[in-house]
Amino acid sequence: MKRRDFLGASVAAFALPGVALSQTGAQVSGYRKLLILVELKGGNDSLNTVVPYADSVYYALRPRLALARDQVLQLDQGTGLHPALKPLMPLWDAGELAIVQGLGYANPNLSHFRSIEIWETASASEQYLSEGWLARCFAATPPPAGFAADGVAVGGNDMGPLAGNAARVLALNDPAQFQRQARLANPSGGAPRNAALAHILKIESDVLAAAGHLAAGAQFRSEFPRGPFGNAVRTAAQLAVNQAGVAAIRISLGGFDTHRNQAGTHARLLGELAEGIAALKGALVEAGRWDSTLILSYSEFGRRPRENDTSGTDHGTAAAHFVAGGKVRGGLHGEAPRLASLEGGNLAYAIDFKRLYATALERWWGVDSTRALGGRHTPLELFRA
Amino acid sequence: MGSGEARHLLGRTGFDAPLERIDQYARLSRREAVERELHSVRQAPGAPPPAWVNDWQPPARVRLMSGEERLQYQRQLVARGLELKGWWLDEMRGTDSPLTERMTLFWHNHFTSSLRKVRSPVLMYRQNLLLRRHALGNFGELLHAASKNAAMLVYLDGAANRRGQPNENFAREVMELFTLGEGHYTEQDVKEAARAFTGWSIEPETGEFRYRPMLHDSGEKTVFGRSGELDGDKVLDLLLARPETSRFIAAKLWREFVSNAPASEGERADLERISHSLRDSGYSIRATLRELLLSDAFWATQNRGVLVKSPADLVVGTLRQFRIEYSESLPFVLVMGQLGQDLLAPPNVKGWPGGEAWISSRTLLARRQFVDRLMRVEEARTQDWLKPFDGRQEVLRAVLLAMPPSNPMPAVEGMEMVRAFIADPVYQLK
Fold first, then answer.
1. How far apart are CA B209 and CA B147, in angstroms?
2. Smallest CA–CA separation between A243 and chain B, in Å?
3. Does B426 contact chain A (CB < 8 Å)?
4. Is residue B306 less than 8 Å (CB to CB) from chain A?
5. B359 to A309: CB separation less than 8 angstroms, yes or no
6. Has the ipTM of the complex gone over 0.90?
7. What is the spatial distance between Cα B89 and Cα B338, in angstroms, rounded to a whole number?
8. Nearest CA to B374 among B415, B324, B329, B339?
9. I need a labelling partner for A349 at 20 to 30 A (CA). Which of A266, B57, B90, B251 fits?
10. Which residue of B has its CA nearest to A113?
11. pTM recorded for the entire structure
C-alpha cells in the first residue's frame, strides 16, 4: 500500500504509537481536518488570474494586459485560467479545485493595511478588530489540548488570521529549526505584570507546549519547488503529517502589488503558486491527508479592471479565490465579474468573503461560526457529499 | 532622581543603561537629566561614511552598460546596501548620543522608504542623513524635506506622478501615514492632492530633487475645502495646519517612549499636552520630547517595562551594554533582519508595527538564541565587565532589567547571574 511504503521509506523518524494518520476514506472529524490558508500578499489581479476571456469589455479595459482567448486555459465558454496556472489543471480535471468568484465586502477599502486587516479579522469595513478570525474561532471552540498548536503561521512577519493572544499559535520557518531553538524557551512561573510581558509569557508557554510534539521533519518522495514559497509549502506538508495535529496553517506568497509592468511578474507568481499547490497535493496524497485537507487562498483585494499607464493595475476590490482539497466540489462558484457595471471603476462584490470563512468553520470543521465572524454568514456549497 | 529613574530614562532614550551613566544621572533632577539628553543630540553621524556615498550613477549611464557590466553593478549595489546597513549599525553602537539614533530610526519608520524598492544605497544614505539632521528639529521642515527626498520620490512613485497621469501613491500615504492618519481625509482629497504634487521629480545627473514645471498640473484644485492653484508645498502646509497631524505624531511618540497601551484616564491629559506642545511650538520636536520626557506618564512606575524591545534595542542594546567590540557589523545586521527589523528595508510603507508584533514564537526563540550565543562568545570580556558590580546582584539586576525579573533568581553568581537575567522574559522589555 502506498502509505506504508512512504512510512517505510521515511528516514526522519516520527513515532507512530498507535495514532494513525488519516486514511483515505476514513472518517476524520472536527479539527483533525486541516485548513491551509494561502495568502497572496499585495492584492492579486484576479481578472488576469480567472479570466473572462469571452467578455469584450475585458479587452477594451486592458489593451496591453489582457490575456488572449487562445492563451488562457479554458474552464468553460466564458472563463479561463492564466496559462501559468497549468500545474493546477490536474486538480481541476479531478474535480478538486473550486473557484469562488466575486469575493469581497461592502464599502471596500483600497488601502493594503486596512483591507488585509479587514480580511484577517473578518471585520466590517468601518469596524476595527484586533484578533484574527481563526484566533477568535479557536478561542471560542478550542482544538484538542493534545495538538502541537491550534494554528501555525509559516514564514512572514505577522500572524494574520491567527493574531491575538487567545489561541495557541506558533510562528516558525521550519519545524527543524523550531525544535532546535525551542530548548531556549523558559518555563516561567511569573505572573504577567503588564500586557507586553503577558504576551511574551504566553508565547513561551505555547513554544514549550509544542516543542515536545512537533516532529523535526518528515521526508516526502514528492518534490517541492525551490524558493521561499516552496519551502513554506514543504513546512506546511511536514506540519500536516505531524503526529500531534494542528488545525490551521497559514503560508504566504508575496509580490502581487503589480502597479507597474505587471505581465512578467504576475506570470511568475501564479506559476509559483500553482507549482506550490500541486506539490502540496502530491505530498498530502502521499501521506493520505489530501481528503482531510482544505486549501483556501485570500488576498487584501483584487485589482482595478482598467489597466494604468505603467502597464500595471491599481488597487481594486472583488476577486476570485481558489479552494482545493480531496473533498472539494470542483467547479466555478459565485459570479463572473460584471465589467459593464463597475462602481467607481471597480467591481462590485457578489459574495461576502465571510461566507467563505463560514464554509470552512461550519462545513469543514463543524464548529459554530457566529462568534468567530461576529454574525451569521451562510456557508457555500463547496464540498462533495 | 535616584538610580531607578536614571535607569528608566537612559533605557528609554538610549539603547542601554550603563552603570556609570546611571550613577551620574541619579544625582540630577528629572529636568536636568532630560535637558542633558536633549542637549547631547547630534545632527550628523559621528562615524565616517562608506567610501562610495558620492558615487551616484545616472540611470542613463546604467542603461548603456553591457550585460556583464550591469551584472557587476547590481552586485555592487547589493554589497553597498549591506555596507550601509552596517554603517548605521556601527553608528548606533558607537554614538555618544543614542537618542539621536533612536530618533533617526523613529523617523525612518515614519517617513519610510526601502532599499528593496529604491535600489540605490546612495539615495538611502542621503535620506538617512536628512532624517538625522531633522531628528529633533522641526517636523514641518522635516515633512517638506522628506517629501522631496529622492529616495522617497522613488519609493512612493512621486517621480512618476505627472500632469494627466496622476499617481496617487504619495498623496495617499502622506495623509494616511505621515500626517493625519486613517479616516481624516477623503478619496477626493487624495485625488486632488496627487495633482498638486505633480512635477516633483529627480534630476538624473545628480539624483537630487528637481521641479519640472512642464509636468505640473497647475489647474484649480480643492483639498480639504481649500481651492486654488495648489502646489505640493501648499498641500503639505495644509496638512500641517490640521489638528489631526500634531495628535497623530504625538501619539506615535507616545508609543515610542511611554507605552503601547491605550492611554488611561489620567494619561490622556499628558498626551493632550504633548500634542498641543507640538502644535503650539510650531512643530518643534525637541520641545515636544521635553514635554513628553517630563510628563507624569513617562515616569509612572506602572509604565516601566511595558514596551517590547525592538530588534535594534535588543541587538544594539546588548552590544552596548556589555561593551562588545566587533570587526564586522554584517552578522548583526543579518540578525536584526532575522528578528524582523531589516534596517533600511521596512516591510511596507506603514513601517514596522512594533510593540508585541516584534515577538512571535519564531522571533522570541531567535532573540534568545542571539543573546545566548553572544554571551558564550563574549564570556571572558563579560567577566571583566562584571567586576565593578562587586557581586551586588540587585545593582546588576537594575542595570540589566527594566523591572524585577519574571522568574525567581537561582542562587548563582558571576556569569551565571548575568545569564539568568538576560534569559528572563523581562530582558525583552524596556
1. 10
2. 20
3. yes
4. yes
5. no
6. yes
7. 15
8. B324
9. A266
10. B350
11. 0.86
